[in-house]
Structures
1.
Amino acid sequence: MLFGRRVPFLSHIFTLVGFVVTVLTVAVTNVRAATPTKVVISFAILSEREAALFVARDQGFFRKQGLDVELVYVANAPVALASLAHGDSQMNTGSPSGPILGAMAGGLDVAFVAGLVNKLTGTIVSTAEIKSPADLKGKTIGVTSIGGGNWAFTMLALEHWGLDVKRDKITIRVIGSDSVRAQAITTGAIDATQLSAYSYAVALKRQGATILADMRDWGVPYQGTTVLARRSFVSQSPDVAEKVLTALVESIAFIQDPANKPAVLKSLAKALRLAKVEEAADGYDIVRTVYERRIFPTPDGIRNIIRLLGASNEKIRGLKAEDLIDDRTVKRMEQKGLFQPIAK
């Protein structure tokens, strides 16, 4: 009799415990779902070309995708690659460079997963005394580093003009970032440089400098701004990779809508550390025209940099552009219709 009474009692206890466990499991699951996924994205250049990152952060597009994104400026490609390799960052944006292609040739499993800007951009700016590309003969051109993205832009510009560094006795001098090189133009430390930030170029022009070229006008294929990630990361976290790129696509659409100009200017001025928001206006007008909506990497643009760097590096010369691209994420996004123009 007593034993018979215990069975319903124990049954109730077990039922209550089961209910509590279920409630706690649901609660933990909901908390996890509500906690944004941490993602670190490093970027290599402080210019308008990175506006998609800045706007995605400031307008909450990353947060909308359930991501807690930290943007970290890393101008040094080897450091950025080491960060990717060790998992300290998950993605990197910038232009292909010697260190990046060298790492790929050496077996690091990084790949180009998206192409935000797929052509040469930026300006070639010189001192007032230089009036044409031919005047660069015998002069000094400043770059960020030898083999870096800015160096590649510079070499392709000289190639476009039919100039040769050795033949035309052009000195390539390592100076530093866009802001440092812009300052070097004003002091006469260098005669010319390629600037990714249009805001700096416009400021120099107002001071009398010469704009020798706006490279957008050439239409030269180049992986101007790419998104790099390890293939293993894309395989292990395909949803996170897609969410990052989806936020960037939404950011590009936002930037290209003229109605959002004030908000974009504010983001640019803040990121580029401009004294006044109005100083970002010229760069904004330009960046709206360079972004891709269909953010596939460009094999032709990658071939251009392989050809340039491969002239002095056998391992890089042996690379094939198609092998360096991992476009499964953008293909999946295209299938979902995420690249369609946003209806007004």
2.
Amino acid sequence: MTSIFLCHSSVDKPFVEKLANDLKKTKINVWYSNWEIKVGESILGKIEEGIRSQDYLGIILSPDSVASQWVKSELSTAWEKQLEIRRVFVLPILYRDCDIPYILRDRKYADFRFNYNQGFIELCSGVGIETERIISENNWRLFVGKRNTPWRTFREQEFKRLVTVLVDRAIQYKWSAWVGGCANPNSMTLSALKPGKRHSVSIKMVGNNHEYMASLREAYNPNHLRASDFDIPLGTSINSCEEFVWRQMKDFRFNYGEPTKKHIILQHVF
């Protein structure tokens, strides 16, 4: 099993903890100081032991790490090992813009500055991790169109989770919910029914980037809407969709009270 030592500044700890946990999910053994060094143990001794025993050292590059004497010492030890074993051992991980150490300037780095998921894929590929172990519900969009990747499975899982979240909201606020079928896949309409007043919110996953778009056109079934009706961008996260729907429900309750007509929950069978 592949193993990696994460070399970092304490300032970057939140990022490193997330990275360490995500790497563990791909079955990589991670040496992370917070997990490995116990009270009373020699910090220097444990760090040197960790560097010597791992397959790779991932150095988190940021203004704080390149200025840290601890990090400089760990990098020096790691570079000595790389020269000894005569293969790539040090993996640069660019977290924040900084003055990259001279000995790493000609090395390709995993770039996390603008897109965490893209940087994660680059890092995992660098240590030979297969796509099947990297792809997840959080990053499947980066694999869309690539052969022999199960991105459609993760798209389906994500949409199912969205439906579950929004149906729970619909029940809480006494709205109706209808999930689209083959005529309008990956879509859903939620509506409030009251004498003389109907309010609808529809959401659909659209485009090559599989982003969520919303519509406020009156409808109870998303299959009755056209593609052009979805004209409000919500991004790619379930949280953004839930927040948008929740605000619509809150506003309706504030302005008109709770729906008084019977609400229904109709779900398409996946």
3.
Amino acid sequence: MLNFLRKNDGLVTMEWVGIAAVMVLAAIGITSYVMQGTEGAGGSVVAGLQSVDASGPKMGTFGNGVSDPVN
């Protein structure tokens, strides 16, 4: 144990463990924050998609008066 305290190798390892732990906690916090923001946006996308009439393509006209060939 005394040898561990005298060498700097153990201290460097402990620093990296601490830095890695802080990075993991920051990533979890950022992910949680972003996910909360995307829930509202996702809900509006779902509402928009549900309001679309998907009964099938319809014959239309382009801006120049030519009929759209899609049936």
4.
Amino acid sequence: MKPKRGLRQWGKSNFACCESGGKLDDMKHSDEIDYRIHGDDLQTVEVELDPQETVIAEAGAMNWMEEDIAFETRMGDGSEANQGMLGKLFGAGKRMLTGESLFMTHFTNRGVMKRKVAFAAPYPGKIVPVDLAALGGDLLCQKDAFLCAAMGTSVSMAFNKKLGAGFFGGEGFILQKLQGDGLAFLHAGGTVVKRELNGETLRVDTGCIVAFDATVSYDIEAAGGLKSMLFGGEGLFLATLRGQGTVWLQSLPFSRLADRILMNAPSIGGKSKGEGSVLGGLGRMMDGV
């Protein structure tokens, strides 16, 4: 069955797909998939597949799937149908550098009726659908942002060529690069804000960037004077995004959430704030905590 191009959506989602124009050059056509996003802050994306359609996803991202959906773990995203073992190993090695699993899971509808499979992010936040064709076929995102995509989407890594951004930009030299002309889903922490840059410069906490298209320039700069850098609580550097294009930002990076949880975990010496009875630690011991 020849893969179809484009995307369809049923139901409602909290985010609209991109609307900026773009041109694709000799890009393989991705499968056309339908989707629906459920929930608010702990979202799930449910993808509807026609017979023989496939969606690729990060290992462990699946929530549920209907009958006739077959899944297979493969080394690679399947965007290069004739890729040899050496190429697959090279691609898997690049994925390891982004901190992701060596393998991706391919979910295919082997039946004769439409079937659904659902995926969820591993921490609280939003799921963002992105139409890669509307972005000209390229999108750069943070290393753990990719959730799933239509078959035919290439998931690889991209090196940031600027030395300062590499050492101090939070995500380092390595970002994930998504290429294709179909639909991809990203996940991010907290609330997600979509910004359109029109020749402007946007300064952002390095952990708050989710994704940006290839027309946006990414660099870092010092966060004010020495006193502000040391005592301002905003870190030593800020990311700068410049140019024409689309940027997605997250309000609560997972690293920030994890740091706050660890800071206040009583089991490792953290401070308990506003919890328990007047008995304090004794009360928690009596509760078995």
